[in-house]
Amino acid sequence: MPKTQLNIDQQNFLLKLARDAIQFYFKTGKNLKTKCLEGALKEKRGAFVTLKIKGDLKGCIGHPLPQEPLCKTIIDNAVMAAFKDYRFEPLKEEELPDVTIEISALSLPKPAKDISEIEIGKHGIIVSRGLNRGLLLPQVPVEWNWNLETYLKHGCLKAGLEEDAWKKDAKIETFTAQVFSE
Description:
8 strands; 4-stranded antiparallel beta sheet; Dna Ligase, domain 1; Glycoprotein, Type 4 Pilin
């Protein structure tokens, strides 16, 4: 698990921060600046911000590895998910009231010694070979009702690899996530 579990107040703060960051970007075209004074919010952590409208994915961007303090990571990823996820049209301001924000605060990835270690709903996966890399958050196989083999297959496809690369030479890493949403 991450170094520190986020309490409900910290979770609510980060969800509001993500929404505020998107609103600020609509107004200014710039990323919101903020100082996070509290311990867990200042930790460098990997995190993803997922945006959905009426249950449908509208954007999801994140960093699997710690790069910045969690607050800055959430601001940057919220803006990227809203406006820069190449899979979707940029968010329109009139859509914002219908957006539900979900945050996944990640643990550090670790190599999976055996696929039997991977628990659906608990572990996210990173499948990689060479420069190809695909990441799926722990909630994805639950949302799609995938079994382990289907999960690994989709991880390979997301990495741009053949679907059975997990059986061959692809590297598999796992991580956990504290997932919370509005």
